[in-house]
Structure formats: C-alpha cells, structure tokens
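Hi R.,

Here are the chain sequences for the assembly we discussed:
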Amino acid sequence: MTLDISREHALELLRDMIRIRRLEEKSAELYSKQKIRGFLHLYIGEEAVGVGAMHALRKDDNIVATYREHGQALVRGIPAGEIMAEMYGKANGCSGGRGGSMHLFSAKRRFYGGHAIVGGGLPVAVGLALADKMKGESRVTACFFGDGATDEGEFHESLNLAALWKLPVLFLCENNEYAMGTALYRHVSDQDIANNPPAYGVPADSVNGMDVVAVERAVHNEAELVRETSKPRFLELKTYRFRAHSMYDAELYRTKEEVEEHKKHDPIESLKARAIGDGLLTEADVEAIEADAADEIAAAVEFAEQGEWEPISEITRHTYARNLS
Amino acid sequence: MTTYRDAIRTALQTLLREDPRVFLMGEDVGRYGGPYAVSKGLLEEFGEERIRDTPLCESTFVGAGIGAALGGMRPIVEVMTVNFSLLALDQVVNNAAAMRHMSGGQFAVPLAVRMATGGGKQIAAQHSHSLENWYAHVPGIKVLAPATVQDAHDMLIAAVEDPDPVFIFEHQMLYGIEGSLDTKSTPPSPWKAATRRPGKDLSLIAYGGSVHKALSAAEELHKEGVSAEVVDLRSLRPLDHETILGSVSRTHRAVVIDEAWKTGSLASEISAILVEEAFYELDAPVLRVCTLEVPIPYAKHLEEAAIPQVERIVEAARRSMGSV
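And here is the predicted structure of the full complex:
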C-alpha cells in the first residue's frame, strides 16, 4: 500500500520522529552521566503516536499529556533546548527547572503538561474543554494517557462527564501494553480498551500506533469530528515502548524476544522503508534529516549546559501569584 | 438580619451577575437547590450552563474546575462536605496546588472550592469531620474559614477574585446563624485574623464553628472575672502570625480551639508558632481544645463529648489561669 502523502509531508513526519528518537537517546546518555536526574521516561518506539497526533491537531487546540511527553512537547514546538534544559533542572528550561522531565509546560503552545499522576490529566482536559464550550471556542482538547490510566476511576468519570456535558475532548489512549511493568492482560478485564468508552456514549476506535501516517489520519478525523459535534471521542493508539519504563526499570516483566519482535515494527524504520519504496524519499534525504537532528540535539545540550541555575532565593516564587508573607 | 446561607447565596448572585466567567458546579447545586440550600433559586436565575449539577465524581469535577480555571473561566466548585473531598485530594494537591509552580509560573488556577465541614448534627463518622488542616498543610492553595455572616459573603467574593486556588470551609452548624450583612463597604482583607472580643487575661484562638463556642466561653469566663480575648483566625493558609502573636503578647496566655483531632492539628501549628515566636511572652503553657481521637460517633452524648464544647474551653482557660 502506498503512503499517499506528499514528499514534503513524508520529510516532515520522518524528521519529527527522528528528532524525538535522537533527543531521547541523548537524554538516556545524559542520564547515565548524571546530567539528568529523577525519573526519565523515554518515548522510543512510540514516536509515531506523538508525531502523527501533533501533525493532525491545530495549533490552537489544547494538549494535555503524561510524564512520557518529551516527544509531544518537541513536535508541539517547545524547543529541544528548553526541553533539555528542563531535564537538567536549569532556569532556562520550559518550566523554569521546577518541573523536570515529567512536567514540561508551555502556555504559548497550549501545552498543559506533563502529568505524572496516572489519570490525573483527564479531569483537567475535561475542564479545559468545558471552558472552551462555555466561551464558544471551536477548540479541541487532546488528552494523552496510557493504558494504565484506563484502570483509574478518573478515566471512567471523565468519559462520563465529557459525554454528559457534550464536551470537545479527544481522548487519546497510548496503549503500549504495559502499565509500568504490569501487562495489559494483568491489569484490565477487557483487553480491547476501545470497548469501554461506548458504554459512556463516547465513540471509540483503534489505530496502529506504529504507523505515523495512519495515526495522523485517524487523529485528524477524530479531532475534526469532535470539533464538528462538540462531543468527546476516544482513539486507542496501539504502540509499544522499546525502552524500559523509566531509567530505574530492570525490565524483569517482559522478554528480550518480545521487545525484539516489536522492534520489527519500528515506526521510523517502517516509514523510511515505505517512503523510499514509494520513491518519495532517498537515502540522502534520511542522511540530511539525521544530520539536522544531530545538530539540533547538540545545540539543545549546549543550551542546557549554558543555562543558569535558579537562585535558591527564588525557590518559593510561583507558589502563588504573589508570595505570601 | 441575614443568615450565613443567604449571605453565601448573595455573594454567588453578585459574582454570577457581574462576571460571565463565573459558574457554579457540584453535586445537587441546581435542581435540588444545594445540599445546604445555599444555591436555592440560582438555577432558575442563571440557567443550566452556569449552575451545573455534576455526577458523583468529586475527583473529576474538582479536576474539571481546575481545567476550566486554566482555560480562563472562574469556576466555583461546591463539594458537599470535606469528607467527600478526600476523593478529590489528588486533584487538589497534585494539580491545583502544584500547577503554577511546576509550570514555572506559566499556568494559574483561579479556582474557588466551597465545602461544608465539622460535626454537631449526629451524622456520624463519614459526615462530621474537620480536615481543614489537611488543606492548610499544602503550599499553593489558600484556605479560608468564615465564622460570620459577613465573612461568609466577603470571603467567597475574595476567593473568586483571587488568582490562586482558594478553599472555603463552611461549618455545617453555621448555615442557619443570623447576622448583619453589609454589601456596600470595602471588606477587610480575608487573609488577616480578627479579634472578635477584646480581652486582657488570655487569648482564645479559634476558627470556623469554634469561634462561636469561644465567644460563649469568654462570656462564661467574664462572669468569673476573667477577661478573655477571642481571636478568629479566618484564614488558615496563610496564617496571620502577626495578629496571633500580638494578642498573646498582650494576654500572655493562650488556649487554641480546633474541631480537628489534636494530633497534627492546626491547633498544634498555632501552639508551635507561639512557642517558636513568643516563648518568652508566655506565662502558662499553651493549651489545645480539640476533638477526641475517635471517629465522630453518632449518639448525641458521645458526639458532644467528642468535639470541643464551651465547658471544655472554659476548663482549659481556668487551667491556663492557674485557677484549677
């Protein structure tokens, strides 16, 4: 099957996935050098989800993401340098060094975080959509969460409330088959996650989350339906995380063979192969993308290295609008 | 004269009329008229868009309030009681309180949350607790406890106008009290404590429903020739150190009354502040009158014994004065 996209678009999609992959690889390296601390959750393997979705959504739409959000943040337009500086904990990071890897924010880009309580972002997304509905905005709130979040009460409550109040939320479930280290079959009674939302009157569909073009099309269709109807919809993106849950994870819960099997569906390699096969791209294009990504990530590391540490005297700043006496 | 309940309703009406961004949501706030009849008639005046009955999902409707505040609205969320608010604590602590700081100041949550608190109605261990201290513990939110009709009105308006998330605790025994309401004058800052009765021999420091018991105790003590000052904390976060220390520096004795359990209570916090900042002003140990360390029992005599009563405050004051 041909990709049915333009050369220019193939370049964009491949470029963004490679940018994420290289950012994540560099982050892992800097974590081992102790430049980045705390928790670090890599997006490697799931790039097609973030890239396809971000290309499908409008600039004016709201994004609510999880603690595995570097990819979405980058493609949404937060500069790699600000993301890297945030992971360093520097003042020039996108959250001023107060958030870290799990809490990337950008008001300018309507990127509402970086939520590290599983399921905790869903009610916030419902509220953002409520505000838009009350103000008469035609915006969609896209809310990312993992398969683990579907276990949480807030998932079910949010579907119910969004459907009841007819709110323009697009629920995007990144099903990577594990809630941290607990496999899907061990944490949900019905492993077909898309079966759940219709019980609340929320139409649901699934898409191959390893295919960036399919993701983009599906998210675009779903988002435009949400916009048109001002009602919530649900899309499951079937994907797989190639790396550990976080840097602390010894991956005792899955086999190397299982991971290798999934790597055969690497979203970057498959887009590359298809685009070259279709005659849209050449090896030289890929090399150019790789070179640009390497430059971008090197500059990002430099930006983080050069960043200042927030003075400790500023520690309570931003706890409130004005510091309390 | 106006009731506490009506004063809150008046504030809600003013806010809803003056600011199109304001809306009220919570369990039974609309058709039912509010579990404590606070929002009675508001659905008829403002319609279903702005007076929103929610499903029973505290975590999600508080979270939706946070999201709506982030999205530019000025939501007022009513959680029926503090006991139910525990289901929403994740949203309160991890989102409302943390959002501004962890986003480096990019995102504000101008949200007002109201809830009933306290015991006294024989509704037992899942409807009677006072957990204001759980909220007051958390940086990033503000906590108010109106004890008077005037404050019930003014504090709600202040909370909605505030750029940060504000939690208002309405003691369930206060909804029916009457007092005068002035909606014309500029109200005092909600973040300052108030001296409700001046005195010179000891300070009775209280908040919410306990303020009225402290005032009754002061009246009893007056008959015994003891002049007790009653300080109403009003704001539980931030705490007004200045007024507390000013009062105790004059009276040199303090009894702190708090309907929470003693362990880890705000009464403990006030005591610690006095020890840290006014130790040499003290002529007697600081005493705490709190709820006994049991889930609030149903039987009337047991419930009364569990929560602070006028007689226990008077006894503590006598001990502080060294007369027992």
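The radius of gyration of chain B is 19 Å. Chain B has two domains: 2-179, 194-321.

Let me know if anything looks off.

Best,
T.
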